Amino acid sequence: MGQEQNPRRIDDNQAMAKARMMRVSPQKLNLVAQLIRGKKVEKALAELEFSRKRIAIDVKKVLESAIANAENNHDLDIDSLVVDQAFVGKNLVMKRWKARARGRVGRIQKPFSELTIIVKEVEEAV
After folding, report:
1. Which of 26, 51, 78, 100, CA to CA, is 20 to 30 A from 42?
2. Which family does it belong to (predicted)?
3. CATH code, domain carrying 76
4. Measured in Å, how far apart are the chain's first and last C-alpha atoms?
């Protein structure tokens, strides 16, 4: 009995990992995501390892999760994986207030982001 299985939202040669509630603005996160788009996963991991951006550590964790999903859940070869898509979305924004001069207030916004990484298995062109 039971419910029918939902169809996959991505192709059979792809795997996905998603991180939500990352404490960084989407603009800053997109700068790191641009580093890895379209690269082989080994090269992308090396780029993130030596990046000086704080959020690169979390992006590396998401990429490693996508690689593990590809290997364990979808039986893809990790040596032929490429970062197909890495896209950033907005999440909630915490609003905080700071006292300013003459009884005024300054609004401080602390944004959160979410990151989705899709890796794809490609055949090597010989």
Report:
1. 26
2. Belongs to the universal ribosomal protein uL22 family.
3. 3.90.470.10
4. 48
The single-letter DSSP state of residue 102 is G
- Cα 23 from Cα 26, distance rounded (Å): 9
Range of the domain at 68: 14-121
- Taking Cα atoms as reference points, which of 123, 115, 119 lies closest to residue 28? 115
DSSP for residue 40: B
Interior/surface letters 98-120, b for 16+ CB within 10 angstroms, e for the rest: eeeeeeeeeeeeebbbbbbbbbb
pLDDT tens for each residue of 79-105? 999 999 999 999 999 999 999 999 999
Helix and strand counts by DSSP (H, E) for the chain? 3, 3
* Six token digits for residue 27: 């603009």
Strand partners, 111: 93
The residue assigned the tokens 């593990």 is 68
Instruction: Specify the pTM.
Output: 0.91
Q: For residues 21, 23, 24 and 25, what is the CA-based torsion angle, rounded to 10 degrees?
A: 60
